[in-house]
Amino acid sequence: MIPYERQERIVECLQKSGLARISELQEELPGVSISTLRRDLKELEALGKVEHLSGGAVRLLSAVHEVSISTRSGLHGSEKEQIAQVALRFVEDGDTLYLDSGSTCTALLRLLLDRDVTIYTTDASACLIKSETRAQLIVVGGEFNYVNSSFCGSMTESILRDLYFDKAFIGTNAIDEDRGVMTPSYVEAAKKRIVRENSNKAYVLCDSSKFHQFSNVRAFGFDGVSIIAESYDEKIAQCARLITPGA
Predict the structure, then answer these.
(1) Residue 220 CA: distances (Å) to CA of 103, 118, 193, 195
(2) What is the pTM of this model?
């Protein structure tokens, strides 16, 4: 297989999965060595088609696609913990909160279980909590999205329209400085939009790999929204309130 054909196959694999590790790409391209794959990926990166992420994964630099929660949970783990710790500073006892689905919001959820707060969430993983919690935890149901491990759809939206929150912590797949907070899924975007409108304060939790990314559905803009990330980005800070550790 010539380099062009290999690289086309790599792009096709990433279009299906959103991101992958080199070992996973090798399974899709039997007979191609790791060193050859690394060389192809380096060429694709130089062409602006892919990006290497911390943790050994590679993703496309085109529109961000939906990536399974199991895949995302294994990436940027330390960054997500940092973001969750920063978000925790804005929670006060007695708050009524909304926590979105997504691995970063799940990290915050774990930190809040022993707090005197009420938590509404569409994160299906909350159903797996087996121990008693100090927090009052309410799972908002609806159609199950197995990719995000979340509940969404018309039933979820109907429930959320009647709920109001002191603070909402919302996940995202992409932050575009011109368009705002974006996601590949229309139903997820609609859910986030309702929560944003029904919250006194809204915080978007995302690691910096989501910055300067584009997806096909806009959830909402930056007005009245704070972004909590693990590192500073000047362009994002110019269009939104950006909160980082130590800030």
Answers:
(1) 20, 25, 6, 10
(2) 0.71
